[in-house]
Amino acid sequence: MMANTARLRPLAWWWKKWTKRDWAIAAVAVTAFLFLLSSLSDDPRRDRGPGARLPAADLVDLTLLRDADAKGALCLDGSAPGYHFSKGFGSGFDSWLIHIEGGGWCDSLSSCLSRAKTKLGSSAYMEQQVSFSGILSSEPSQNPEFFNWNKVKIRYCDGASFSGHPQSEPKDKKGRIFFRGQLIWKALMDELLSAGLSTARQAFLTGCSAGGLATLIHCDDFRKLLPKDATVKCLADAGFFLNEKDVSGKDTMRSFYHNVVQLQGVQESLNKDCVASKEPSDCFFPKEIIKTIRTPVFLVNPAYDFWQIQNVLVPEGSDPSESWKKCRLNIRACTSSQLKMLQGFRDSLLRALSEFQKSKEGGMFINSCFIHCQTWIGETWHYPNSPRINNKTIAESVGDWYFNRRAVKQIDCPYPCNPSCYNMDFS
Ligand SMILES: *[C@@H]1O[C@H](CO)[C@@H](O)[C@H](O)[C@H]1NC(C)=O
């Protein structure tokens, strides 16, 4: 159990690092933007409606869910869940983009209890403001398709991709813990529906990592909440977790998911037919989930997702000789035999996607970068130097697909062929 907690630590560390980094990027962007505003006598944004003038830095306040106690919708520690809401303006007033935050999972009582003392398990530790960038940015040059939509970032605080159930809460342990993921999802949707989502003309449910998985799990529910004539689609970013053996031949990810599903009673939120015919935790893997989703889905996933390399392919403990020590932190440090294994991992991803690739409505952007989430980070979403496939950024590819401009099934050539990649280096 401790090993699993330890395995999740690199993600938490990365998360903090990105957040700081993103703040820095946002600060630079805002300074540049304010400079631009001051130098233009006729700001072209002004005709986009009264909301067009942004608050400094696109910082968005945390809102706590109303009546969380009465609804039983609680974070792991019993606090109210939260989200950040930025109101749509101009032509985006009746369009909604929801983004579900990620942050791994807890797979044991002890790891959930530790998580309950962090912002991934309690709103008491969440930032009061976050900056909206990438797919959440209100800046048209950074987010050309969705900048003026109503935008919501849902904070992740249940530890099981919004799919836990209270029947599985331990009754007789000392520290109380709450498994309310599914109730949080429902209560948040109710609150957003009454804030205008119920009359949306266009809606887009998105999420990254564990939030990408939550997006896939709840995509069809989301569809049902919205008007029949609304355009409703979903996007999972870095949420396509593979049921693959690690380098030592163990089913680390499979047993990890098994523990998460068992601990929080997640099978209740999974597809009934799948759960009836398979081991329930298999139905928590996107490969199974996408077989049953009826709403159009877009998958953004790097073929060398560093979270998966560090936790699925080469988790801590799978490499006692430490021969992967450098490669798992920096793809440029991989030996040719290690790269061969990474290409095998990419092949597994492409195999798992082969049916989906044939679907008419689905879209995909599978780039060959050593990165994790790419939609909510400005640098990877739509900067001039953002990753591209066929000269299209992720933002352009997603926009082309969402607005039916063309079919988008982008699969990059294998590493290291794409010079536009943003490859992380943790060493
Ligand atoms: C790639 O796209 C950019 C604009 O997004 C354009 O300026 C450039 O000419 C394109 N390059 C090629 C090779 O098509």
For the structure shown, list the relevant keywords:
binds 2-acetamido-2-deoxy-beta-D-glucopyranose, two-stranded antiparallel ribbon, ten-stranded mixed β-sheet, 12 strands, alpha/beta, globular, disordered N terminus
Summed up, what is this model?
With 427 residues, this protein is of the alpha/beta class. Helix content is 35%, strand content 13%. A hairpin with a 2-residue loop joins strand 10 (388-389) and strand 11.
Notes on the protein architecture:
The chain is globular and about 55 Å long. The protein is α/β, with parallel strands linked by helices and 427 residues long. It has a single domain (2-411), classed as Alpha/Beta hydrolase fold, catalytic domain (Rossmann fold), CATH 3.40.50. The longest helix is centred in the N-terminal third of the chain and has 38 residues, at 2-39. The protein contains 13 helices and twelve strands. Helix 5 links the parallel strand 6 (202-208) and strand 7. The chain is 35% helix and 13% strand. The chain starts with a helix and ends in a 16-residue tail after the last strand. The chain has a ten-stranded mixed beta sheet with strand order 4-1-2-5-3-6-7-8-9-12, sandwiched between helices. The model is unreliable at 1-56 (pLDDT under 50). The structure holds 2-acetamido-2-deoxy-beta-D-glucopyranose. Its EC number is 3.1.1.-. It is an enzyme of class 3 (hydrolase). One of its GO terms (molecular function) is hydrolase activity.
